Each structure stands twice: as structure tokens, then as C-alpha cells.
Amino acid sequence: xxxxxxxxxxxxxxxxxxxxxxxxxxxxxxxxxxxxxxxxxxxxxxxxxxxxxxxxxxxxxxxxxxxxxxxxxxxxxxxxxxxxxxxxxxxxxxxxxxxxxxxxxxxxxxxxxxxxxxxxxxxxxxxxxxxxxxxxxxxxxxxxxxxxxxxxxxxxxxxxxxxxxxxxxxxxxxxxxxxxxxxxxxxxxxxxxxxxxxxxxxxxxxxxxxxxxxxxxxxxxxxxxxxxxxxxxxxxxxxxxxxxxxxxxxxxxxxxxxxxxxxxxxxxxxxxxxxxxxxxxxxxxxxxxxxxxxxxxxxxxxxxxxxxxxxxxxxxxxxxxxxxxxxxxx
Length: 330
Fold this sequence. Notes:
This protein has helices at residues 2-28, 34-45, 50-60, 67-82, 96-131, 136-150, 153-167, 186-224, 227-234, 239-255, 259-268, 271-276, 282-291, 295-323. By secondary structure, the chain is mainly alpha-helical. The protein has a domain at 103-293: MetI-like (MetI-like fold), CATH 1.10.3720.10.
């Protein structure tokens, strides 16, 4: 196991280097950058000259977009990364690591609560759909979850805002707290935050629950057709005991694969949902930084996600051994 983990970590380092080079090149090739977005209008108005604009770009390290300029900029960024520095965000005027660490916990809270509800709802729905295959219950569950999968997150979020915030007035439209709440802490501020997060969490649960339900349904159907399930039924065991003691435990084994995606999901933020509800999460900040060509922040954010993805995949492989003793890692 130790050798396996060491090999995977070394392979992960190579993968992260490749990912970082690709991301940096794509970001540098964007049609705009932070300096253009901030100062181009002043050039049009004659406030500053083109030469002064080029000097500002050189100050930010954005003046040379040639092949060798991009390579040189990448290795400068990589050298700073090896020294533990992600650089300073152009837009937020703070170290990238500090911006990420301060704002990722809002995204973590939303994603963590949403994932708990997704599992609590999707797994029972998947099991009941599989045990009533081609029945009314199976069709109803499948249709409802497919509707959730098909709805774009921005459209469903806007629909919830229209119905429950604008028309009915049950929930706030945007933000994390009322303007009258000074944020001094305490239970009032805590419950105000929870109240503001209900619609975003509902949005994430509905649009993500379908894929998990169908995954559970498919795995359950495969397990129910196994020989040991037929043997358990032949012994006269109750159907509930066959499903929830024998079948369900083995259904959970493939679900461990989802751990690879859960870890980055917890901290990456729901970019579109946070944008619609104006939440100060890391996803919303990353979206604004990307729109303005904030290269240090976009690079730091994407590398943060890449590291989480690699760690999630490694954790998923290790968990296979925990949940299924038959798996042997050579």
C-alpha cells in the first residue's frame, strides 16, 4: 500500500505540472487581460497613451504574449509556486492564497450541506427505483430526476427566485445576510445566513440528484442479479433483509468512485449558482477574476482544484480497499 501511494503521488506531480502548463497557456491566450479591461477605455478617451498602456502591461508581466514569453512567464510562476507563493491577485489586491482561504468556506458550507441532502435523497430513490424496475415508482422517479438533470442551473435558480423570492416573498433574492444585519455574530446572524442559503442549496440538490440516483439504480440492478442474492432469496430471507443487508452494502462499493469528485466539489464553489445568488463564495470570485483576466488568481484557483482532484482520486482508490477487502493493490 505504501509503495502504491508513493507511486501515485509521484504520478500526480507529473499530472499537475502538465495541467499547470496547459492552464497557464490557455489563460495567457485569452482575448483580453486585466490591464486591457481596466485601462482600455482610458486609452480610447485619450487619458493615457498606448505606450503607457504597454508599460502597465510590462509591469504586470503581460506585455509578451509570444511563445517564448508565455514559457518564460510560466516558469516564473512555477518558481514562485515552488516557494509557496501563488502571487498577488490583480483584481482583489491580495495574495491569491489569502483570497482563496478566506472565501472558500462559504462554498464549502453550501456544497457540504447540498451533498448530504443529495445522498440522503438520491440513494433511497435509486434503490426503490431498482427494486420496482419498470414499475410506476421507477418511471416517476426517473422522469423527475431527468427533469432535474436537464434544467440548467442558472435557469432553475432564476425560476426559484421568481417563484419563492419575488412572487411569494418567502426567501431573500440574493446575498448572505440582510442589509440590516451588521454581521456581529450570534444566533441571529447564523440563522440569517441559513435562511439566505436555502434557495442555493435547493438548486444544487435538484440539479445534481439525478445523476447520483441513476448511478445508484444501475448499481443496485447489477447487484440484484448476482448469484448470492438469488441464493439469499432461496433461503427464505425477507426481501427487505436481502435488499438492505446483502444488496445495499455491495451497491455502495462503486459509489466510492464518487469520492474522487466530491473533494474538489466541496471547495471549488458552484460558480453559476453563486453568481446568480450573489454569494461571496470562491466560485463567484473565480468567475469575476476570469472575466477580467486576473491571471494569478485564475492560475491559483485552477491549481487548487487540480490538487483537490488528484487527492480525491487517490482517496477513492484507497477507500476501495476499506469497503471491499477483495480488492488487492499490487
